[in-house]
Structures are given as structure tokens and as C-alpha cells.
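Course assignment 3, question 2. Fill in each field.
Student: A.L.
Task: Predict the tertiary structure for the chain below.
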Amino acid sequence: MPFNVANRIIGGNRTFVIAEIGQNHQGDIEMAKRLIAEAKAAGADCVKFQKSCLTEKFTQNALDRAYNGVNSWGKTYGEHKEYLEFTIEQYKSLQKYANELDVIFTASAMDIQSLKDLEELHVPVIKIGSGDANNIPLLVNASKLTIPLIISTGMQNDIMVNRIVQIMNDSRKTNYCLLHCVSAYPTDPNDVHLNMLHKYREYFPNITIGYSGHELGIAISTAAVAYGAKVIERHFTLDKQQKGTDHKLSLEPAELKELITRIRSIENSLPTVTDEQTILDFLSTVLTKDELSDVKLAMASLPKKQILDCERPCRMKLGKSLVYRSHLKCGTTISPNDICAKVNEPFGISAEHYDNYLGKMLNKNVVTDENLDESHFFHSDT
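Answer field:
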């Protein structure tokens, strides 16, 4: 079901291309502006950053852990993330610059406070990343906004994807799309499973479907358009050799431009038949032999959406756990204000189980940011 984002149609005949700048700006506002300009020059429709309120996204344990590797911008993970996080005033400056260039500006909302911040910035679309695609409170809050949403589904199974759709339906929200995504950096072609795009279109015929890719090169993202993706999102950098974990799988300006050129050349002549051989025959006119080999690997079929082995390291590092929002005493009955989903160290009960703990009674005192545990609750049979 097509919908408008800043006078651009998502879900129509023209593919919506997002340059995911993320935090590839190295914490430098001028580099961020250059990335916006280069993305616009390459033909991107949208530039996307990542917005976090660190104390809402991470527990103190996660922020305090030592982080002194080659990609670190601080001695702790908190210092590292703070270095890369722009202020609201800087976001306003970047938004103004993007508007002047006539490219859509937005960000991923990585916690409820950041969702509110982006709403107040009046961005025309908000991204919910894979790390929050099972964050029930965030999804519920986002579903109530009039602002369109783009939701990635990496690190999720078919049950959770259906849950996302149900949450949107409960709020009567229709101006959103789902992106097939695999949260492995980079993603091996064998793990891409482009057939998920067909399955999503079959399961959700009234929802716009797209693809967020983390693979190397541009062939598989080109093929995703042939598979029916109406949104393509790729990480974007000025230089793959820069410091940071995302740069190596990001596209440089010339690569992004070539990807968009290919997309524009094929999107109006896609075959109506969608069997794999027809798609391969069609793509053979725009891809090299080696690129077609990668696409064939990316066509490996999965019977249903599932969390892949290659995604588990990311899920353990950046997936959200259920934690207590404040100190609570024994005998407290859990309400929505008592628990939330954060990145914690160590990982605990996954965020999608949020509803299971509402109404349960604590059998002990607990502290702020502590992981929930089954042993913390009275059970009806005891």
C-alpha cells in the first residue's frame, strides 16, 4: 500500500533509496554534511542517521564496560557512543542542510526518548532498526504516531514479524513498510535469503516491502529490486578504510551512484513473472558473471523468517533485554512504568517477552537496570 514521505511515494513504481549514514560521520558535523551532499549527488532519496538517548538505550553496565579496541572513540562503551552522538541542535543543523539540498533527512529512533525527539524535529519518516524490531514499548509508541515508519526485521523470527504487523493494525497504522534484513556485518550471500521478499509480499499483500542490505557490493541489492523491494537501504561512507565497524560494509559514493543507476534502469522493466530463473535471466543484462554468482547464493531459500546463526553475535551485543526501570521492592506488581528494554551487559530476557511480565509480583527487591529473571517472581502454583 503506497504512502507519501515528503512528496515521494513509497511503494510505487520508483524505488525509495536510503543512504544509511548511521554514525559513519565519526562524530564530525562537517563530515556528516559532506556525507549528506555525496548521498544526494549519488541520487539517494533519503539520508538516515542513528538517534539515541544513551541512558534510555543502554544500562549503566553496558555503558561502563571497557571498550578500547581499534574502533573505539573512548575508554568505555559509553564514552565511545557519546563521542559519536550528535546533539538536538546539531540534528537541526543537519536537517536544515539536507532540506536545502532537497534530500529527505531522518534517523533511526533507538529508544522512546529518541522517538519523541524525532517527532519534535518533524522528520517526514522514522526508522525502527532491527535492534528494536522486538522492542514492544517502542513499537507501540511509534505505531501511534502519524509519521510514516520504516521497520527493519533483522534478528527476528516470523512470530515477531507478525507481532509487528499486529501492533500496527491495533493502532490502525497503514503508512509503514517492512524491510527484510539480516543483521550480520557483513552478510555472506548464503545468508541473505532474498526469497523472504516474496514471502513478505505473500503474507502481507497490503504492506510495502523493502530490503536493508549489509552484504558487500551492490549486486544483491540490485537483485532485491527485481524481487519486488520498493525500498533499498544501504550503509554509506566516504571511505571504507575509516575507523569504525560499519565502514567496510558501507558503499562509497561511486558505488551508491552505480547502485542507484542500476535500480533506475531496471525498475520500470521488471518481469511480471517472479520465478528465480526469470529473475536471473533479467539480471544477466545488468550484472557481471561474478555478481550473478553472488545473487544465486543469495537466493538460497528459507521456509520462514528466523533468527540466523550469523545474527546471534549482533543480537547478543545490541539486542534489547528487559530490565527494571527503577528500584522496586518485594511485593511490587509489575506495571508498564516498571520495566523497559535496553542493551544490557550481560544480555538477559529478550525484549519481545515484555507483555509476559506485566502483572507479575516480585518476590525480592530489585535495582535499576537489573535484568529481569524468572526467579524474581511469585508464580500462581507456589
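Instructor remarks: The first strand starts at residue 3 and ends at 5. The chain has two domains: 3-298, 320-376.
Grade: pending
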